[in-house]
Design goal:
The structure is a single chain. By secondary structure, the protein is mainly α. Helix content is 67%, strand content 0%. The protein folds into 2 domains: 58 residues, Helicase, Ruva Protein, domain 3; 122 residues, Zinc Finger, Delta Prime, domain 3.
């Protein structure tokens, strides 16, 4: 992230911390590609404002990875209709069941709001211990506010069942994932 921030500054622009973290997560350590994407972002904002995470999501070539977070957010908000259209686009872009592993939320206790408040300052430490990017951990922490422990346990069981159905050939991958996402987005009973 430091390299990204310095490179943006060299381009006479600024970038928010969230945008730099997202760009680092999407592109990784490919400095040539990072350099190209930074040039694109700097040109887009023309130094008039800092590059935002929204700019990164809109312009960066590998932004499909961020769509998993949007998908999980839709599940958390119980937006079934948005998911029906979004899943088709998402799966067509080449996302597979294994890509969903990156978006799983860690467990939450019965008072997720308090847990999120405690965990948020520790996101970098949690990311280091889990060998995950801090952006991924931050999003997971935020998403736990929408689920209680019973819902997370039920979702985990469904994920395992769906994974097994796909791997054993009982269900076609796209259909299984569509059904899983729609089921998980239903309001709790």
């Amino acid at each position: 992230m430091g390299w990204i921030q310095r490179r943006v500054k060299d381009g006479r622009s600024k970038i928010s911390g969230d945008a730099a973290a997202l760009l680092a997560m999407l592109i990784g350590q490919d400095l040539r590609l990072l350099d190209l994407e930074i040039d694109k972002l700097v040109t887009f904002t023309d130094g008039e404002r800092a590059i935002s995470a929204g700019d990164v999501r809109a312009l960066v070539s590998r932004a499909r990875e961020t769509n998993i977070f949007d998908l999980v957010d839709c599940v958390g908000r119980r937006e079934t209709l948005a998911l029906c259209g979004g899943c088709t686009t998402f799966w067509k872009r080449g996302t597979s069941a294994s890509d969903l592993d990156h978006a799983r939320s860690p467990g939450a206790d019965p008072d997720p709001g308090q847990r999120v408040a405690q965990a948020r300052p520790c996101a970098a430490e949690i990311a280091g211990q889990l060998a995950l990017h801090p952006y991924v951990v931050g999003k997971a922490i935020d998403q736990t506010q929408r689920f209680d422990m019973a819902q997370l346990e039920a979702a985990h069981r469904r994920l395992v069942e769906t994974d097994w159905a796909i791997k054993t050939g009982r269900m076609e991958e796209t259909l299984a994932l569509d059904l899983l996402v729609v089921e998980m987005s239903r309001s709790p009973a």
